Amino acid sequence: MTRPELSELDHLREVERLAGVVVDTASAEGRLSYQPDADDATPLRRAVNALARGLRHYHFPGDGCLDEEADRPELKLAGVVILRPGTMPDGMEETYEEACARLGVEARPEGWALWNTWGDGKLQVTMVVSAVDTTEGLLANWSRGKAVHPLTPVPSQIALIHHGWAAHMVFSPFGVKKLGLGGQP
Predict the structure, then answer these.
(1) Count of CB atoms situated within 10 Å of the CB of 157
(2) Is 96:83 a contact under the CB 8 Å cutoff?
(3) Rounded to an integer, what distance in angstroms lies between the CA atom of residue 80 and that of residue 138?
(4) What pTM does this model have?
(5) Residue 155 lies inside a defined structural domain of this protein
(6) Which of 122, 124, 117 lies closest to 153, judged by CA?
(7) What Cα–Cα distance (Å) separates residue 176 from each residue in 37, 82, 92, 170?
(8) Same domain, 80 and 49
(9) Which tens digits make up the pLDDT trace of 100-128?
(10) pLDDT tens figures, 19-46
(11) Which DSSP symbol is given to 90?
């Protein structure tokens, strides 16, 4: 089987994706450290640790990297939608104001993020949250194949929770895997 011809940018994205697989595997095996390498670390372990430190992770509010966020658990998302005045997701026919009215929230200038996740018993729910900047950070990471999760929002960030998922979502890498949408590797 021949490999498809990749553009230079697609080739670099594939190399970064594969490097992420190496780092994730090393982490799952307990062989990864972001700390300085131990004196007895093998050359391979040093190389994998350096690779992990060099991979891009786009930080965002609520990514769990700050000490004061340590007590908030991660939230696994199927996907997200960002609603903003004048910038609605492709395929949505309604205006921002109409979407806000349908959801039961005020139309804020900064917009809203819709986080599609699961409640008890695998119930599909959409959280309407004010954490638009967090959602933008998630999208920046997901677009590079980084399966990052946000922290559970604080109560003041949650406007409403609706039964079912919002349409027109961008699926998370976790959601793609969990829902079996990934196709062939």
Answers:
(1) 16
(2) yes
(3) 9
(4) 0.74
(5) yes
(6) 117
(7) 34, 18, 22, 10
(8) no
(9) 999 999 999 999 999 999 998 889 999 99
(10) 888 888 888 888 877 778 888 889 998 8
(11) T
Strand partners, 135: none
Count CA atoms closer than 13 A to 101's CA, side-chain side.
5
Q: Confirm if 126 and 135 have CB atoms less than 8 A apart.
A: no
How far does Cα 97 stand from its chain's mean position? Answer: 26
CA distances in angstroms from 78 to 18, 26, 38, 61, 167, listed in the order given: 23, 25, 38, 19, 12
CB 114 within 8 A of CB 166: yes
Identify whether residues 23 and 88 lie together within a single domain: no
How many domains are contained in the chain?
2
Please indicate, yes or no, whether residues 28 and 96 belong to a single structural domain of this protein: no
Residue 30, domain extent: 8-54
If residue 114 lies in a helix (H) or strand (E), which one and from where to where? strand 112-118
Please indicate, yes or no, if residue 136 is contained in any of the structural domains: yes
- R_g of the chain, CA atoms, integer Å: 19
Is residue 73 domain-shared with residue 38, that is, in the same domain? no
Q: Do the domain assignments include residue 139?
A: yes
Euclidean distance between CA atoms 181 and 64, whole angstroms: 27
At 19, list the tokens: 């490097």
